[in-house]
Specification:
Mean pLDDT of chain A: 73
Largest interface: A-B, 47 and 63 residues
Protein name (chain A): General transcription and DNA repair factor IIH subunit TFB4
Strand order of the largest sheet of chain B: 9-10-12-11
Mean pLDDT of chain B: 82
Order of helices and strands of chain A: EHHEEHHHHEHEHEHHEEEEHH
Radius of gyration of chain A: 23 Å
Largest sheet of chain B: 4 strands, antiparallel
GO molecular function, one term (chain A): zinc ion binding
Strand content of chain B: 5-15%
Number of helices of chain B: 22
Main location (chain A): nucleus
CATH topology of the largest domain in chain A: Rossmann fold
Strand content of chain A: 5-15%
Strand order of the largest sheet of chain A: 3-2-1-4-5-6
Oligomer: heterodimer
Helix content of chain B: 40-55%
Number of strands of chain A: 10
Number of strands of chain B: 15
Structural class of chain B: alpha+beta
Helix content of chain A: 25-40%
GO cellular component, one term (chain A): transcription factor TFIIH core complex
CATH class of the largest domain in chain A: Alpha Beta
Family (chain A): Belongs to the TFB4 family.
Shape of chain B: globular
Structural class of chain A: alpha/beta
Distance between the termini of chain A: 82 Å
CATH architecture of the largest domain in chain A: 3-Layer(aba) Sandwich
Chain lengths: ~375, ~450
């Protein structure tokens, strides 16, 4: 029939958006936050982050969230509240996330019955605030004096393992544990059936100089890359080569706001859209990414280093003990490589050593490699 | 966004701007609209604008979107503007910019921050009643009430007596008639559409009918909508105080209790419990599969329960009389076991269903929504042969198509005939033509009639 029929043209395509899991890694390094306190106190940042979490939860009905604190002496979950391992902790709650704190009747914290607040928001908020308070109370002076940096590597691994678990639990056939095991064994084959959960990681970072965790962080980045989990970076202070590479390798957003006070607006505009929405939006990225690596021996960011021909470990110096690779133990005669260097390299290297890497040839070279977080004792 | 919230969205869209303004004063309503009604991309736009201190220039908005997704952006903006969420502004330099409607923005902010003193997310009752009811009780209560309604619709056609269930109230009956689900003691085609949907969609279509009916009952639509959206944000198993409700909302309590959407211990109780039907009002299919699915047919049918084989045999793991009744509308059921019925889809059974006014799409949708988890492993859930055959059986009965309209004939010349045919085609009213006999058929006379008049006047002049 060639008649024009207006009534049939209003069929709408039901584009189902997969629920998205947002794992937030919050850098709670006390030194760095003390340094930021004049522009953006930690309390304000946390309040902004809570609004952002609520906005994320509101953006999709299946959306869930996990918050991990990367502190100076440990990394731990702020939400969901971890409980000592118990066999029946796999019940999922209203938000569809793996409840590490069991079911809702767990009263480790009390949610006030506030008629002005949406209950799921209130639950998340109370849990985060109480766990955060616990974390801060547990921080001793000795912990602070021990290190000026933060354990981002551990926090990233926690986030990744949580996402992996949530993805399995969220898959359509959850009841069958045998299949879940199969999925672990063979992630490639079963990928099609497990795309149901779109996960991403957001790192809110304030500390500089993470080069001492180069290896664990790099491993996490590769794991995320393989699992197609974008890592978004919000860099409020300091700068690290490592996190730039993380967002670049995994296709995440990288942002270093000029004015950290406007944290909420940055979060809402750049970090809230989930992978589905990002397909139609132009997202900010790192631009020129600094691809320099950190050496395995002294954890320094190097422009040019020596690479083990067997395991690809990177060293900043040719003076290896017994000429053996520190990682795999193979024999390396790096000295021979050094004795006959290409003409250009030594000059560049000298320059870098003198000025602390401020004028390197790599893009994004304005980032000081060794920008240590200042100590606030 | 699930299919079920489309109906609510359709309803919301056609409300006048004043009603929208009134609605947006309630944070729980705004949050529910944001969560369930808006397309995915629109949510991103709203959130980006929410804490923006200045209006967002239209050029920046265009720059934010990739070139290839302008179409989706336009769709999202269209809905936002239709719901009066976003306002277009033009500044002195004639630059277009967008901002959120102020009361929508402030309500959404309040909802996200949990600030303000609007008490719109339900006031929990603090009285420790000794007769608190359990979640299980609420589930069975809402299930019973809702199944009664469905059974009232279906039972008569299939010839089942409602075993154990009581009759539904007269208010519900008149509402079902008003909604066009039930007429002259028989279920209508819309009624079948209603019955074959998933529970959430059923609840919404009944509530939309309720809303349309509201002005006649002297009830305020705004109050009803606010209350419904608030119900969606409540917690199951908690009792809430009725003290903050308006007169309309108190009136609603009774009706909703009859639908099984809320529970009250007695008619003048000072508290009410939302049931699972209520708390899933503003959530998606995702929450439905765990929740409201169980409301339709007992524990065994909590998820999907129907297995369809490529040889057209159907196995349904259910003992719910309602589900069996619905199945028997379009299948030839043969055996019944304590937890299982089995049967076959035949040409005859589908033909009978189509004679009732059920379409093949509805049958397929029903089987699809209730497919057993084992079936859900494959995509599509149902065997393609079965789906195609059901459709073919429907087309078999549709060899003839009737359309009402007007036959134009007795044209004096070939030229004027051609001209009129072209004119009818251009205006989209053309249906059929026969060049030999110089006649054609149109489904509306207005435009062509006007042209004839004009031409006659011209020839006369």
């Amino acid at each position: 029939m060639n008649a024009i029929d207006a009534s049939d043209h209003h069929e709408r395509v039901d584009e189902t958006v997969p629920p998205s899991l947002l794992a937030i890694v919050l850098d709670t390094n006390p030194h760095a936050w003390a340094h930021l306190s004049s522009t953006l106190p930690l309390a304000t940042a946390l309040a902004n982050l809570l609004v952002f979490i609520n906005a994320h939860l509101a953006s999709g009905n299946g959306n869930s969230v996990a918050v991990i604190a990367s502190h100076s002496n440990k990394s731990c979950f702020l939400y969901p509240t971890p409980t000592p391992a118990s066999p029946q902790s796999r019940h999922s709650a209203a938000n569809g996330d793996v409840e590490m704190n069991g079911t809702a009747d767990n009263t480790s914290y009390s949610v006030q019955d506030n008629p002005n607040k949406y209950r799921p928001f209130a639950n998340v908020e109370t849990a985060i605030l109480s766990n955060f308070a616990k974390l801060m109370e547990g921080t001793k002076e000795s912990h602070l004096a021990a290190t000026p940096t933060t354990l981002i590597g551990g926090a990233l691994s926690l986030a990744l393992s949580y996402i992996a678990k949530a993805t399995l639990v969220n898959s359509p056939t959850t009841s069958n544990t045998e299949e879940a095991m199969l999925a672990i064994a063979d992630p490639e084959a079963t990928r099609t059936s497990y795309v149901s959960l779109a996960s991403r990681i957001l790192i809110v970072s304030v500390s500089g100089d993470l080069a001492n965790q180069y290896i664990p962080v790099m491993n996490s980045i590769f794991a995320a890359q393989r699992k197609r989990i974008p890592i978004d970076i919000l860099k409020l202070a300091g700068d690290t080569v490592l996190l730039q590479q993380a967002s670049d390798a995994t296709g995440g957003v990288y942002m270093k706001p000029e004015r950290p006070e406007g944290l909420l607006q940055y979060l809402m505009m750049a970090f809230l859209p989930d992978p589905t929405a990002r397909r139609s939006l132009v997202m900010p990225s790192a631009g020129g990414v600094d691809f320099r690596a950190a050496c395995f021996c002294h954890r320094k960011v190097v422009d040019i280093g020596f690479v083990c021909s067997v395991c690809l470990s990177i060293f900043c110096t040719a003076d290896l003990p017994d000429n053996l690779c520190l990682t795999c133990g193979s024999y390396l005669s790096l000295r021979a490589a050094e004795s006959n260097p290409p003409a250009l390299i030594p000059r560049k290297k000298k320059k870098k050593k003198r000025v602390g890497g401020t004028d390197s040839a790599t893009p994004g070279g304005s980032t000081p490699a060794g920008s240590n977080t200042p100590m606030h004792a | 966004m699930s299919a079920s919230s489309f109906q609510a969205l359709d309803y919301l869209e056609q409300l006048p701007v004043q009603t929208h303004r009134k609605l947006y004063e309630q944070p729980s309503t705004v949050l529910a609209i944001f969560r369930c009604m808006l397309p995915h991309l629109a949510k991103s736009i709203v959130m980006a604008l929410l804490y923006m201190p200045t209006p967002f220039p239209a050029t920046d908005l265009d720059a934010w979107f990739r070139a290839e997704s302008t179409q989706t952006k336009r769709g999202a903006m269209f809905i936002l503007e239709k719901l009066h969420i976003i306002v277009q502004k033009q500044d002195d330099a004639r630059q277009l910019s967008y901002e959120l409607y102020p009361s929508f923005a402030s309500s959404l902010r309040q909802a996200l921050e949990g600030s303000g003193s609007h008490r719109s997310f339900g006031v929990p009752s603090h009285k420790t009643e000794e007769r608190r009811v359990s979640v299980d009780f609420l589930d069975s209560y809402s299930q019973r009430q809702w199944e009664n309604i469905l059974f009232y619709l279906v039972g008569g056609t299939v010839g089942f007596r409602n075993a154990g269930g009581q009759d539904i109230g007269s208010g519900t009956k008149s509402l079902l008639q008003m909604a066009g689900f039930f007429n002259h003691g028989r279920i209508t085609q819309e009624g079948f559409t209603f019955v074959l949907r998933d529970t959430n969609a059923q609840v919404w279509s009944l509530l939309v009918a309720y809303l349309r009916n509201a002005p006649q009952q002297r009830m305020s639509e705004t109050d009803i909508l606010n209350f419904l959206f608030m119900l969606g944000s409540l917690e199951l198993g908690q009792d809430y105080s009725t003290a903050t409700l308006s007169a309309t909302q108190l009136q609603m309590l009774e009706d909703l209790a009859e639908f099984g959407i809320i529970y009250r211990s007695h008619k003048s109780a000072s508290t009410f419990y939302p049931t699972r039907l209520a708390v899933t009002l503003t959530s998606d299919a995702g929450a439905l599969s765990q929740g409201a699915g169980s409301a339709t047919g007992g524990g065994s049918t909590a998820k999907g329960f129907i297995i369809v084989e490529t040889n057209y045999r159907i196995y349904a793991y259910t003992n719910s009389l309602l589900q069996i009744a619905i199945l028997s509308l379009f299948t030839h059921l043969r055996t019944r076991f304590p937890n299982l019925v089995s049967g076959k889809i035949t040409r005859r059974s589908i033909g009978r269903a189509i004679a009732y006014g059920i379409t093949s799409a509805q049958v397929i949708e029903y089987l699809d929504t209730h497919a057993h988890p084992q079936m859900q492993k494959t995509k599509p859930f149902l065997p393609p042969t079965v789906m195609d055959q059901i459709r073919l059986w429907e087309y078999e009965r549709e060899r003839m198509e009737t359309s009402q309209g007007f036959l134009m004939r007795d044209f004096t010349s070939e030229i004027s005939y051609k001209e009129y045919v072209q004119y009818a085609k251009d205006n989209g009213v053309f249906v059929w033509q026969n060049d030999k006999q110089r006649m054609f058929f149109i489904d509306s006379i207005e435009v062509v009639g006007a042209k004839i008049k004009r031409d006659r006047q011209k020839t006369r002049a």
